[in-house]
Amino acid sequence: MIDPEKTELDEFLKEYTRARRNAVFFIENYWNKLHPDNPIILTDDEKQQLYKRFRMAPLVHDIVAYTKRLEELRAKGYKDWEIDA
Q1: What is the pTM of this model?
Q2: 65-68, long-range: CB within 8 Å, 24+ apart, which pairs?
């Protein structure tokens, strides 16, 4: 049985969820580390296209607050694939 108190499992689930929802995060943090001889290097435009193609809709309880947070982070210069919503 899995012990829900284990922080390692919590961290794994958080990281797995982010990698599953964000192709750019997966490439940069996993794929390129597994294939250091042939990494995938993307421009910001390519990252945005890839992110939009594979992104998943997060579960949102308050869409107004979620949208406001996204706007604030984008105004600070964050790219869509960098936002861990």
Answers
A1: 0.66
A2: none
Distance between CA atoms of residues 57 and 67, nearest Å: 13
Q: For residues 23 and 50, is the Cβ–Cβ distance under 8 A? A: yes
pLDDT in tens, 16-59: 888 888 999 999 999 999 999 999 999 999 999 999 998 877 77
Most confident of 2-6, 22-26, 80-84: 22-26
Cα separation, 6 vs 2, in Å, equals 8
Structure tokens at 51: 């992110």
> Cα separation of 51 and 36, whole Å?
22
Three-state SS annotation for 7-49: HHHHHHHHHHHHHHHCHHHHHHHHHHHHCCCCCCCCCHHHHHH
